[in-house]
Amino acid sequence: LIKLIGGASTMAEHCDKWNYPFVRRDDSVVETRCGIQVRDCYRWLEDPDSEETTSFVKAQNAITMPYLAACPVKEKYHARMSDLYNYPKYSCPFKRGSRYFYYYNTGLQNQDVLYVQQSLQSEAEVFIDPNQWSDDGTVALGNCSFSENGEYCAYGISESGSDWRTIKVKRVDTKELLSDELKWVKFCSIAWTHDNNGFFYQRFPEPDTNSAGTETSQVLNQKVYYHILGNPQSSDVLCYEMTDHPDWLFGCELSDEGRYVILYIFRGAEPRNKLYYCDLEKLNYKIESILKMEKVADDEFESSYDFIANNGEIFILKTDYQAPRYQLINVDIRKPDKANWTTLVPGHDRDVLEWVAAINNDYIVLCYLKDVKSVMLLHNLSDGSYITDLPLEMGSITGYSGKREQTEMSYHFVSFLLP
Prior knowledge:
The chain has about 425 residues and is mainly β. It has three helices and 29 strands.
């Protein structure tokens, strides 16, 4: 470390010779924040595509890049960090349909590779390798979602670190890439209906293509659509929008039996949300127009609500409502007023409930953060009663896979002490 600092210090002695580019100060932009006038003198730099900003960045790089190129410790630092990071990395295996999938990186690959295998003992095959999509490794695989029968995979692709994604669909058995291509997708979930014919997703109106990916203004008017496999995006069904709140965002999932569409509503990046649902059974599972959403939790973004499972009309939610370290509650959607909510597993007086998952039909796994280490417990889903602790050494759970209808689960455990 002393050698690194010393090398950097030697170069820093030449700072006084740099001709740093002039930065224009603009005093005309003034906004009132909390009753105080605030002058934003460099707002013009927030437009990355303007000629003035481009020239300024070019002048900065003319100083920065030669300095970095001449840094005497750069290669040593790069070699050491590469050596430390060069080890195999695995995700939890997860089962979709009859097959198992997992992500794997040999060590220094730019992108993790998604593998498929017929059983946990069979040889794995590459299913999606995003490293093949670009020479510099800047095209990434985003969220993947498999159809209920495990025969189709819808996945997002992003380029150069952009939040914008393009959704594509692949057959699992033949690895054939289908014609489906959905654009202008950002901050999106993918939720398949259980007939395996299509999925819900969220998209924005088509932006100015000249600035897509570099725009600095807020992207507005996200909407929920339903896409049927094989159809062009132009025929996707608009299912939900909130024109009176253009800055709100959405997320979707399906309940375990496929009857309910669960809609999450977010206000920006706040860790709180509203929760709605639509009963597809009342529509004979036909999705042809705007869905009528019913409210489960509709306070003014005061709490977070995470759908865990349902027993018929009883929704089980993880929430910090009246429980700062989170609890599990039952909500009867036929009478969803808060006065009718009941506690399934109360919040702990010290440990934080990090996540919950239903498994093997009648059970739930609860993961707590206890004294800076993970603890996993098994409870009954029906009444919330405690069954047992799942054995864990000192460390952290960083991944989990398992579904309510499955009899097996996997978790990813890391520790500074093991092995």
